[in-house]
């Protein structure tokens, strides 16, 4: 008799165009949606944030990457990216 196939848990990884993630309200809305929908990770586009930073909330970790502020020539900082990791994704990252 062949062994049973091991069932693996599916991970939810989604892209999201946020069109600016500069206010605390938008960050809170994003982290709430991640918690409600039990996402593993979300890839962010157009965060409009400069520099590199890692921000931690009680439900997830947000990682941003953009140009250095001195190199930014656009008004909105378009083209910046980020990723939001759930606590389970942070544990897997470590």
Would you kindly provide a brief summary of this structure?
The protein contains two helices and five strands.
**Model regions low in confidence, pLDDT < 50 over at least 5 residues:** none
Mean pLDDT: 81
Main pleated-sheet profile? 5 strands, mixed
Number of strands: 5
Annotation field: number of helices:
2
* Portion in strands: 25-35%
Alpha carbon gyration radius:
16 Å
Describe the structure.
With 94 residues, the protein is α+β, with helices and mostly antiparallel strands. It starts with 12 loop residues before the first strand and ends with a helix. It is elongated and about 65 Å long. It has a 5-stranded mixed β-sheet with strand order 1-2-5-4-3. The model has no long low-confidence stretch (mean pLDDT 81). A hairpin with a 3-residue loop joins strand 3 (52-56) and strand 4 (60-65). It has helices spanning 24-37, 87-93; strands at 13-17, 41-45, 52-56, 60-65, 81-86.
Topology:
Layout: E1 13-17, H1 24-37, E2 41-45, E3 52-56, E4 60-65, E5 81-86, H2 87-93
Parallel strand pairs: 1-2
Antiparallel strand pairs: 2-5, 3-4, 4-5
Summarize this structure as a short list of keywords or feature phrases.
94 residues, five-stranded mixed beta sheet, 2 helices
């Amino acid at each position: 008799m062949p062994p049973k196939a091991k069932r693996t848990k599916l991970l939810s990884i989604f892209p999201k165009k946020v069109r600016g993630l500069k206010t605390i309200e938008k960050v809170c809305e994003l982290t709430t949606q991640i918690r409600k929908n039990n996402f593993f990770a979300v890839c962010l586009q157009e965060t409009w944030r400069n520099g590199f930073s890692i921000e931690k909330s009680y439900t997830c970790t947000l990682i941003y990457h953009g140009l250095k502020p001195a190199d930014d020539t656009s008004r909105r900082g378009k083209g910046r990216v980020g990723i939001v990791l759930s606590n389970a994704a942070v544990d897997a990252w470590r």
